[in-house]
Amino acid sequence: MSFGKNPHVAKAQDAEMKARAAADDHTRSSAWREAARLWERAAEKERFDKKAAEYRAHADNARREADGEAAPEEEAPAAKPAPAAKVDRGSLN
Fold it and tell me: Which tens digits make up the pLDDT trace of 6-63?
C-alpha cells in the first residue's frame, strides 16, 4: 500500500467489476450494494471535499444499479450534432 492513497477506492472499483461480471440478478445487485458501501467508506476517509463528493456520486450510481434503475445520463441521451456538409474543394479556388 502506498502512502496517501485511499484503499477503499480500489476495493470499490473491484466490487463494480464483479457486479458487471455477475451471472444472475441477485449476485449483481449484491455486488452493486457492496460497491456503494465501499464508495461511501472511501468518501468518509477522503480529505478533499471534491473527491469525497465524487465518491458519493459513485455510491449513488451504484445504488441505482443495484435497484435496477437507469442513471440520469442514460435516461435522456444527448442529441448528436448534425454531420458537417461536404465541401467541394474545386470550388474553393
Answer: 889 999 999 999 999 999 999 999 999 999 999 999 999 998 999 999 999 999 999 9
Distance between CA atoms of residues 14 and 12, nearest Å: 5
pTM of the prediction?
0.69
Euclidean distance between CA atoms 20 and 39, whole angstroms:
16
User: Element (H or E) spanning 8, and its range?
Assistant: helix 7-21
- Rounded CA separation 57/75 (Å): 17
Where do the structural domains in the chain lie, given as residue ranges?
A: 7-68
Going 40 to 1 to 30 to 51, the CA torsion angle's sign is positive
